[in-house]
Design brief:
By secondary structure, this protein is of the alpha/beta class. The protein has helices spanning 45-56, 86-101, 156-175, 190-195, 210-213, 215-228, 253-267, 281-285, 293-301, 314-322, 333-337, 341-347, 365-377; strands spanning 16-18, 21-23, 27-29, 61-68, 106-111, 127-128, 152-153, 180-184, 233-239, 271-275, 305-308, 328-331. Strand 3 (27-29), helix 1 (45-56) and strand 4 (61-68) form a beta-alpha-beta unit. Helix 1 (45-56) runs parallel beside helix 2 and helix 6 (215-228) packs parallel to helix 7. Flavin mononucleotide (FMN) binds at residues 30-33, 65-66, 109, 184, 186-187, 237, 275-277, 308-311, 331-334, 359, 363.
Length: 380
């Protein structure tokens, strides 16, 4: 069943709110790396076109791809956009203006790749919480191949620089016209490396029990909040799974989740976005005893929660909202196949299926355009 064949008006089409942001509906574009910026990290006209198309398609909130935050260790992939230089800030204006003209708010995802950096304009080596080689291999769809390098253990000075990069980038994002930022604390990147027991072997105040392992993420949120004031939207994305470990679950279950959500709410986060990299929400969200991690996040933090993972599936999407597991749903792959997904849903039109070939051999905008053109030529 496609989302649009849902009998009554789908609950995701109801208006929503995240902090001070009014949302026309509860459907957000999930952050998706498109490795389509210029080699120096400057966003392009093509990227502005892509985000504007999603806003015109009716999404209540657009969240951008992970964007790097300093010229030290944060960049994850070649052709990833940054928000650090004057040229990058100026070029993002085109995207924010176009998305606003189409009526949607837009939030910039701020990302430090840490040990999972597989391409950088600035350096060859990587840095992370501990000198632990990452699991798995680099991702070809973002231009990588082979094993990851073993990162250098970050010193207290490195950690301070990383926090500073997040803060400056948040200020830059506001200057570029974004309505908020989302700190990328999910999917195995730097802040998640600190959160994770097997990548964080530190014996200082950032390592050991979960209350210490969440410290860096909380410090980043608090430092941004202190700089941007109370009204700017400062979300954070978290996940149990990772791009290089779909099976990971927080070892302390609900206890770990409560410590993490409380720390981030206390730090001043506006919302929590719980991702499901490589898996459906239903597989990653269930906790022992029948609760869900997104429902727990809402209850513990009192903040709006965005749920992710297979939310193009209509009955799951409806259930997540109706049963109070989340406030907003983010859609990734099916938004690529249906940039106008909310409009289709409202009109009862059928959805296109996501085809993995849309993002092959790399997840660039150009490859998706080629895939569409080939489909049009074939009369599909
Ligand atoms: C091409 C692609 C790029 C992605 N890049 C990011 C990213 O930059 N930041 C992030 O947090 N998640 C990223 N993700 C994960 C998605 O945001 C989302 O969590 C995942 O696709 C599951 O949601 P879905 O079932 O709606 O696709 C990416 C996913 C895809 C398919």
């Amino acid at each position: 069943m496609s989302i649009s064949s849902f009998g009554v008006r789908h609950p995701s089409l109801e208006p929503g709110r995240i902090g001070g942001l009014e949302l026309a509906n509860r459907l957000a574009v999930s952050p998706m790396t498109r490795v389509s910026a210029a080699p120096d990290g400057t966003p392009t006209q093509e990227m502005a076109d892509y985000y504007a198309e999603l806003a015109r398609g009716g999404f209540g909130l657009v969240i951008t791809e992970g964007t790097y935050t300093d010229t030290l260790y944060s960049q994850g992939y070649l052709n990833q956009p940054g928000i650090v230089s004057k040229a990058q800030v100026a070029a993002w204006r085109e995207t924010t203006d176009r998305v606003h003209a189409a009526g949607a708010p837009i939030v910039l995802q701020l990302m430090h790749a840490g040990a999972l950096s597989q391409g950088s304009h600035y350096r060859k080596d990587t840095a992370g919480p501990s000198a632990v080689p990452p699991l798995g291999e680099k991702m070809p769809e973002y231009g990588g191949h082979g094993r990851w390098a073993t990162p250098r253990e970050m010193s207290p000075a490195d950690i301070e620089e990383a926090v500073r990069g997040f803060v400056i980038s948040a200020v830059n994002a506001r200057e570029a016209g974004f309505d908020g930022i989302e700190v990328h604390g999910a999917n195995g990147y730097l802040l998640d490396q600190f959160l994770t027991d097997y990548t964080n072997r530190r014996d200082d105040s950032y390592g050991g029990p979960i209350a210490n392992r969440v410290r860096l993420a909380a410090e980043v949120v608090a430092a941004i909040r202190a700089e941007v004031g109370p009204s700017f939207c400062v979300g954070i994305r978290l996940s149990q799974t990772k791009v290089n470990d779909f099976g990971h679950r927080w070892p302390g279950g609900a206890h770990d989740a409560e410590v993490v959500f409380t720390a981030l709410a206390d730090a001043g986060a506006t919302y929590l976005h719980i991702a499901s990299e490589g898996r459906d929400w239903i597989e990653t969200a269930r906790l022992a005893g029948g609760a869900t991690i997104t429902g727990l996040a809402r209850r513990v933090s009192g903040l709006p929660v965005i749920a992710n993972g297979g939310m193009h599936e209509p009955s799951q999407a409806a259930q997540v909202l109706a049963d109070g597991h989340a406030d907003v749903l983010s859609v990734g792959r099916w938004a690529l196949a249906n940039p106008d997904l909310p409009r289709r849903l409202a009109e009862g039109a059928a959805l296109e299926d996501f085809d993995h070939m849309m993002v092959q051999p790399m997840a660039t905008l150009d490859n998706t355009r080629r895939w569409r053109a080939a489909g049009a030529r074939a009369g599909v």
